Amino acid sequence: MMRLERRPDIPLSLALSAPIGAVVVSLALAGILIAAAGAPVWEAYQRLFLGAFGSRLAVTETLTRTTPLILTGLAAAVAFRARLWNIGGEGQFYVGALAAAALGSEAGLQLPGYALVPVLMIAGAIAGAILLLVPLLLRLRFGVDEVVTTLLLNFVAVLFVSMMIEGPVKDPMAFGWPQSVPIVGDAILPKLVLRSRLHIGLLVGIGLAILTWIVQSRTVFGLESRAAGLNPRAAAFAGVSLKRILMTIACISGGFAGLAGAIEVMGVKGYVTTDLSPGFGYTGIVVAMLAELHPVGVIVAALFVATLFVGADGMSRALGVPSFIADVIVSLSLLTMLVALFLSNFRIRR
Amino acid sequence: MDALYIFASVGLWAAILRIATPLIFGTLGALMSERAGVLNLGIEGIMTFGAMIGWLTVYHGGDLWLGLLAAAVAGGVFGILHALLTVPLGLSQHVTGLGITLFASSLSYFIFRLCVPVSGTPPTIVPFQVLHIPGLSDLPFVGEAVFRQTAPTYLAVILALVLAYVLARTPLGLAIRLVGENPHAAESQGLDPIRIRIGAIIFGSSLMGLGGAFLTLSAFNSFFPTMVQGRGWVSIALVVFASWRPERALLGALLFALFDAYQLRLQQIVGKAVPYQVFLMIPYLMSIAALLVMARRARVPQALMQPFRRGER
């Protein structure tokens, strides 16, 4: 009789083939939709690749798009590893963006340039962390599932931003468009590549991903948070304070998502609108899953997802395939990744 | 004083049932699935897809009822997907559900954009009209407040009562509840937990599709992205508020709609003194409050979110 057996450990080759397999299957399935849209599938994917990497501008745009996805991806990866279901990355992104924009404006903090940039980043992170601490406290204190509360708070956060940019931080010079007052020149992040939108936020994201990896694999806290996720009861029995771990994880996870918003304001836009994020928070969840929650894997997964989004615009312009195809591929790859993980976690025994 | 007069306006009471309808469908859908032990966070996306496909069917010349049917069938198809991933494979119900939401919504936008070219004003259809019930609709006040709804609203209310009966009083309802409480005990009674769970998810998902379709076929007459506006997540919260019981889900949705209809009117009285965003936040904050109130009191199905594997405990 055949039965499924959980693998004791997963070899690296299998761990790497899961996301690759998932992506290939998703691209193949999305190919059906591209064909349905009346476009040649192979050429469409060529256009997509060219749209993302075909020119200097395209490469810098793709990397600019990668930056917030690394951070929202880390936000989900860190939380999910400790079984903290933070689905509120989108809302945390927005409050982080709002904090940086409000404090970075003319009327905000009066700080010299070298201090302003880190202070604004920290402010964004704190705002994001607070927005996640609320649902975590509701879970710890009242037993309310954080999945639904973080989801609901996303809507509240965007409405709050909308209220602020039509009220206290509204830009009177924006011809009536609801947007915040622009940040001062000192708060704008230096460019990584001249004459492009790519800014040093990318290095911040990569640096934090590596730092997270080191903390997770080399420190007691990393070990404890992993244990808390794998088996909370055993961890509690071994003397790990689950509450303390979860609070810390929430600060880190919400902080990453808030930082993503702050960096997007300081590096790309210079002000906040309610369409600052095309779903960075939600897409971060897909990034984290494709990376199998590995911090360094998040960098690669974020680059992949950014490639799809930037490339799909080019494909859409050239062949008339709706650019929503990128969202379809990304969401499909989350579902195929779940199946791939299942297949690599188990083996068939006779 | 004006704030109290709102309650005397017939428009408020008529709006309640209209606002509640998608929530009734959504909450019942999520509830049926959870009663069998499976959380379906695909709801937000399935409602979006139902709204899109229902509208598209009618836009291409289909009957309004055919539009509803298309939404229910499409919902069921996403239900099959969710069921296959979470029941036989036992994958994380949280992440799978979110994946379904992301997939169903992005597919809705893709198909909509493919079939309807970009234009300044969104194309419209002729939605469901008020169903006149002889006698009842003509009653003073009550007739206008309660009995001048469109057909799907009556369908939602009847469905809630039928499901309340089925769950509480029939062998099928008992089987679903048992699978959600203790699938191993259910199996020893000769039931097949896997088939029952799959069936409950598919049925629940088709109700979610109907809830979405109500938005485009009755409440509004066009489709636009993000029109579901978190109604799916609100429904998930309402299931907890209703303690997983259909009759309470009906009451919860109506209560929720009362607040929503009230705040819409209060907004007009208050004017610019309070930012309108504060009012728009109320439904979401109210859902969180509902979760808070009921979190410790509600009787959660004991096997909710626990995958069932034969011969494994």
Q: How many structural domains are formed by the residues of chain A?
A: 1
Looking at the structure, what is the overall shape of chain B? globular
Order of helices and strands of chain B: HHHHHHHHHHHHH
Kindly state the mean pLDDT of chain B as a whole number? 92
Mean pLDDT of chain A: 92
Give the total of domains of chain B.
1
- Which stretches of chain B are low in confidence, meaning pLDDT under 50 for 5 or more residues running? none
Radius of gyration of chain A: 21 Å
Helix content of chain B: 55-70%
Classify the oligomer: heterodimer
Instruction: Please give the number of β-strands of chain B.
Output: 0
CATH topology of chain B: ABC transporter involved in vitamin B12 uptake, BtuC
Which segments of chain A are poorly predicted (pLDDT under 50) over 5 or more consecutive residues?
none
Shape of chain A: globular
Most extensive chain contact? A-B, 41 and 41 residues
**Architecture per CATH nomenclature, i.e. the level-2 architecture of chain A:** Orthogonal Bundle
> How many individual helices of chain B?
13
In the CATH classification, which architecture of chain B applies? Answer: Orthogonal Bundle
How many strand units of chain A? Answer: 2
The proportion of residues in beta strands of chain A is under 5%
